[in-house]
Amino acid sequence: MVKPGHHLAAIIPSKGSLFEVSERPTPTPGPDELLIHVKAVALNPIDYYRLYIGAFVEVYPATIGSDYAGIIVAKGSNVSSEDLQVGTRVLGISASYAAKGAPDYGAFQERVLVPATAVTPLPDAVSFNEASVLPLAVLTAWSGWYQLGLPRDAVFTPEDKRGLIIWGGASSVGSVVVQAAKLLGFVTYVTASEKHHAYLKELGATRLFDYKGADVVEQIVKAIKEDGVAVQYAYHAIGDLQGTLDVLQKVKGEGIATVAHAPVLAPDAPKADGIEVKFVIPPMEPSQTAEFIQFVFTVWLKEKLAKGEIVASPRLQIVEGGLSSLQKGLDEWKNGVSGTKLVVEF
């Protein structure tokens, strides 16, 4: 039995340590915070690196974890939104990065403090497990639109003939970008393993290509020219950047093309004349960051989930065992998963 006023958490006692599941005191939310009873978390690559090399962790003992879904059990005095009442089912992104591992703020525990501005109410039709795969991927997708310079209210019509290359559409971020790009009105040219093509078509991809094909660049270029579409943007979700650059060089015309690049850019990453590659991050000025995150979760995602215009993607895979299985799940991610996101339910 857990002591009153305590809950179980996957604690990292010190840098280089692995998870230890133990009790810790349950915190009280500050004025602008919510206390969430966590029901499911999704695993992300950054979680692996935070655990094993201490990336973005300065406070020990630490908790980590970003993607969660759960139930509001307490709220701060400034939280007045009617959408965020005790008992409301929600998804959101934790403040674990900003908190540098401070143990009240990592999602890998039964109770977590979160900023009320980074929370979205869940429609009844969306399960906790499904909801948990979305938060970081949605924020990363929108950070890409920001880096590409797209207005928040941008919507293209078929007559506009605007195209977008999405490299790595079956990844967590890529699958959300496919959905969001459809809502923006882009004609999309999406790469993924052939086994994922039917699923991505369901999510709204226009044209699909097997990235392993020796002539994949030529295939994409041919399709873009056949469609008569203007392509000056690409969202590179995963994989070798060279293919994205090669396509853009052949189709972009005389203007500058831009690539939103989700993975961290290596110092020796390929470059190309007339193409700007931007790492996918939100606005960095603190007040702008806060406003951006609030828009993504309390306006855009809230509306799209309620209308069913965004669905949980990619497909999820449950890692059995609750908090004790987080280690196993991160190791499983490192060993390779394709077209799925690993989820742990509590």
UniProtKB/TrEMBL annotation:
GO terms for molecular function: oxidoreductase activity, acting on NAD(P)H. Gene3D superfamilies: Medium-chain alcohol dehydrogenases, catalytic domain, NAD(P)-binding Rossmann-like Domain. It holds the Pfam family ADH_zinc_N. InterPro entries: ADH-like_C, ADH-like_N, ER, GroES-like_sf, NAD(P)-bd_dom_sf, Trans-enoyl_RdTase-like. Residues 16-281 form the Enoyl reductase (ER) domain. SMART domains: PKS_ER (SM00829). Signal peptide: none annotated. It comes from the Eukaryota. This is Enoyl reductase (ER) domain-containing protein.
